[in-house]
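Hey forum,

I'm writing up a methods section and want to include a predicted complex as supplementary material. The small molecule is S-adenosylmethionine. I've pasted the protein sequence and the SMILES. Can someone with a working setup run it? I'll credit the forum in the acknowledgements.
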Amino acid sequence: MLDEQGAQNYWGKQVEKGGMEPCHYLNKWQDKYAFEIRTSVFRRSDFRGLKKIVDIGCGVGDYTAKMFKLIDSDAHIVGFDFPFNIEIARKKHRDLKNIVFKEGSVPDENIESDIKSADAVIMTTVYTHLTPDSREILLGYFEKMKSGAKMFILEYFPEVVPEFQKNQAHKIVESSKEVQVRFINHGLQVLEVRPVNYIDSFLFFHWGKNWFVYFITKWLDNFVRVFKYYRSKYKLIIFTR
Ligand SMILES: C[S@@+](CC[C@H](N)C(=O)[O-])C[C@H]1O[C@@H](n2cnc3c(N)ncnc32)[C@H](O)[C@@H]1O
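Reply by user p_vandermeer:
Happy to help. Structure tokens for the complex are below, copy them as they are.
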């Protein structure tokens, strides 16, 4: 696994490759599908009554901006990421006055202090990219969250980590059970495990990454959605402090 400097360099290179869209797959159609499916798992009721939400590893702010549509009108979101992503996020979402983008990566005392006063923390596809040390430090920050505050983590959390996901430089995948036990050991309780019905990579991988596969995948997704498949590899796990 990369160390903290290595991780920063890795994400910096993604910006060089991806311009204003540096995260995820760097393919327009697969990214569009991922964005739509992943963000559709959040509901307005998840954020009702929450005034301050902290988005850790907000990237260029696209998911943050989507969450912004679900929060109360008097609420605000603070998004943290490396400076090169924050620079883009500020440009892309300058109209959204209730989002503040701040430079900062775990470990960081500003992140710690914003987490302490937050009503909720969000992390979308960030946790697996944190070094083991950063994970432990972040979990320590969560121990200091307000009682009753929520923690939303959307991630690739399979039941069993497949071989091909092991020994990668830029991520360490944990199973759904592993992550729940870890968070519980740091004083959080599981409120809900919400599966993300997600069939993205199969056809994109076999048939190519193009608009046709995007539409076929979206169409097939309507059928998959009828069933809540709790073994889905992507999950939104909602914890409370
Ligand atoms: C897959 S992207 C997800 C970005 C965004 N949350 C989204 O869903 O589009 C992972 C993000 O984690 C950020 N990241 C990696 N290590 C981090 C750290 N130690 N602290 C904060 N963010 C980090 C990266 O810069 C990158 O923006």
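Some notes you might quote in the supplement: The first helix runs from residue 4 to 18. The pocket of S-adenosylmethionine is lined by residues 7, 11, 23-24, 56-59, 62-63, 80-82, 85, 105-106, 124-126, 129-130, 134 (CB under 6 Å).
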